[in-house]
Amino acid sequence: MAVIIDGKAISAKVREEVRKETEKMTVKPGLAVVIVGEDPASKVYVRNKAKACGEVGFYSEVHELPENTSSEELLTLVDKLNSDDKIDGILVQLPLPKHLDEKTVINAISPDKDVDAFHPVNVGKIMIGDYDFLPCTPAGVMRLLEETGIQVAGKNCVVVGRSNIVGKPQAMLLLQKNGTVTVCHSKTKDLVEECRRADILVVAIGKAKLIGADYIKPGATVIDVGMNRDENGKLCGDVDFESVKDAAGAITPVPGGVGPMTIAMLMKNTLRAAQKAGKK
Ligand code: GUN
Questions:
Q1: Residue among 116, 118, 137, 227 whose CB has most ligand 1 atoms within 8 A, to mutate
Q2: Which amino acid residue places its CA nearest to atom 2 of ligand 1?
Q3: Residue-level pLDDT at 158
Q4: What pLDDT score does 1 carry?
Q5: CB count, 10 Å around CB of 129?
Q6: Domain of 221?
């Protein structure tokens, strides 16, 4: 049976670090979260982000805009937040409704307040290893590995999924830690074979329980970024936890693995943005 990596406990540790730092400050870090439309999953995420802000002592604002918000209206709000000194971090929850162009909105966020690290300036900085913010989910995965004592250097690291939010930056962070990194995607010829070479396997594809025991090298570390519903409506990852847990050396559960880390790293990024803005 694998070591179960407890994302809830590690996330609590990170948030406590942020809370302690924030306690020493006279001007509190501020996060603005913007959500457009009624996507129920996004609403839960946004509520959890605002709650986490309260717990670490941040100022926070949630801007809930209707589904039919125009691009101009959204960009005007982003502009206003860009020049608001109370606000150090701006997060526009994705996905946006179809009529809004995500790229245009991300590009409008000041790179100094881009606590998601989605702006091309921040993506470029990550590429050359000279960054202010790391994207929250991949950074959370790296912290889970570190806290579990799993070395990356020299390991075969396989990332399944190549999204801009997770797969691509995850590959870059593993490479920075001197892993030998392979990125797999929907056109990969033999996914099972690629995954079976992984000492560290990170899966972020959004397909419920796709990865079974046959994909796993015995003793491998398996990090499941997926968040899906199974046939009974129960939350599950991209990894079939029950079948993989005996083959893996360490594994993250869903829920309670990577998910809680994303919010913890968002708190870290917001604190860093505030410190960079000169708040003390
Ligand atoms: N939607 C799903 N994950 C994320 C995230 O990390 N940031 C934002 N802005 N939207 C998301």
A1: 116
A2: 94
A3: 99
A4: 84
A5: 10
A6: 136-259
**How far, in Å, is the centroid of ligand 1 from the Cα of 218?**
32
Q: Which CATH number belongs to the domain containing residue 39 in this structure? A: 3.40.50.10860
- Shared-domain flag, residues 248 and 176: yes
Convert the pLDDT of each residue in 176-191 to its tens digit: 999 999 999 999 999 9
Same domain, 64 and 153: no
Rounded Cα gap, residues 26 and 168, in angstroms: 37
pLDDT the model gives residue 74: 98
Q: CA separation (Å) from 123 to 12, 118, 173, 245?
A: 27, 6, 12, 34
- Ligand 1 neighbourhood includes 258 CB (under 6 angstroms): no
The answer to whether residues 141 and 85 belong to one domain is no
The yes-or-no answer on residue 101 being catalytic is: no
| Number of domains, the chain | 2
pLDDT along the chain (280 residues), means of 10: 96 98 98 96 93 98 97 98 98 97 98 98 96 96 98 98 97 98 98 98 97 98 96 96 97 97 98 98
Ligand 1 in reach of 22 Cβ (< 6 A): no
Q: Which of 99, 91, 43, 20 is nearest to 67 (CA)?
A: 99
30 and 107 part of one domain: yes
Q: Looking at residue 214, what DSSP letter applies? A: G
Domain of 234, CATH number, reads: 3.40.50.720
